[in-house]
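Listing S7. Sequence submitted for prediction.
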Amino acid sequence: MLGFLRSSRDSSEKLAKHSFRDLLLFLADKVQGDSEYESLTARIGKFVNQSREKQLQILPETYLLLEQYVTELDGEIKSREDVRADVLAKFPWVNRIQTLQVIFIPHARQPIELSKIFIASVLARTYQLLGSTGDKMLINLSDWIKDAPDHVGLPIPFELQAELPKNEKDWFSLLSKISHKLYQNLENKFSENFTGKIYEKSYQDIAEKYKGLEDFEMTIRLLPMKLLDAAKVNLLSQKNKQKVLIGQVDDLTALNRKITQQAKELQEKNEIISAKNREITESIDYAKRIQFSRMPDIKDFNRIVKESFIFFKPRDIVSGDFYWFKKLDQKDPKYVIAAADCTGHGVPGALMSMIGIEQFERIVSYRKIADPCEIATRLHKSISKLSKRQDDGIQDGMDLSICTLHSGTKKLEFSGAKNNLIFFQRGNMKIFKGDRHAIGEVHDGHEVFFTKQSVKLNQPTTCYLFSDGFEDQIGGNFNRKYKRVRFYKLLEKMHELPMQRQKEILEQELHHWMNPEGIDPYAQIDDILVMGFKIEFD
């Protein structure tokens, strides 16, 4: 009965004789960059040294990684459909490798097959761990899933609906409902902890193989909300994380339209709006998990720079401001630290922040570039291309302040896009001003350059990077902005205090400014980010 859950070894044994190395090198040869090509061939070499059983296990992940290089990291963008067509023409046998089949089926069918693989894995683990061969419900579900979607009939498992779906999207929706209903059934039969482990292990297995697929992020919907956390989100590729976040925006748009329509039609509109607002808040909370999983942990900043703080206060649940930092080179450490303010706030700003974080990962973590001027220039070119592809006249971008600390030469280098760096040495305040154009700001016919400024760190130096949220906040007794001059004086007044005390002062000052005595509190108007750190090399 469970034959469909076990790998058939006959075809895979024969096809194992084919050279997977030739297939992978065929993809690597499409990459133009020398350093990228060397990196890929080294990975292929490690793959070849594995046993055939191990190769078949990691083949999907390795193939999709190479495919991603060809379509996303290479200079000449080529669609995945074109790459797969080339592969099938050159290696027609790949479509008969069981672990690769889901990659080469039509794009719209992939989420359905991934859902079947996941549910089948859950059922297999249930049988393996509990020996529940006598459970009629599980047996019937196994048979039904095996034949879906082409050779199944009614009734649908768990009586979820009366008719079979008419298209791929509805089929995936039905399989998601079946997965959730199966979870409830197993949870009632056994325990929440036990069932959660089965689902988590099954999801981790398919993520390790297929997380590089274009629409793999849809499989998150197979998991109950209670199982979602940053660890599950981090199993996705960076591009798929962005697609999940974008999906939340689409859901919010649809929900808002539905709220407007129902408010016109129903008398009890307040109850409807309240219910839908809860749905929207849950959706944005979900987006927050994704965004915050991509930013470094604030605790790690204190490990990189012992005397430091990050005061981060999004206006909404998700933020258009983001911070980023990275330590490079263990022998001669360099520390890259950045504060960015993206166009907009809330969900639109968060989308741009995800793109910015991805670019920092590519430029600094992957390409090992530490020069702040080169980082800003590369980031600008990437964001500019995004703006040029839009036809709505809106330019997306960000204000940025970024610095690199060189422990070997005891030097700080800074580049900025509209945002500044404030630092203090021996009680004297100095300002490195950022350039007057933003990251991604398009100037027709003009090349955009970023300047670099530096200072020796041969004495204790306290630095601040920040967005404009604090200085622009409305408050006080006269409904005015806090303003930059007042903000700089506050930094000057507190810069010699311990860093955690400085963070407390910022919080208290903002609270008093927004809540003056005798006046209604002011609402926060923008995201707020302030990063402070003290450098004192031995």
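Caption to Listing S7: primary sequence and predicted structure tokens for the chain studied. The CA atoms of residues 123 and 142 lie 7 Å apart. The chain is about 50% helix and 15% strand.
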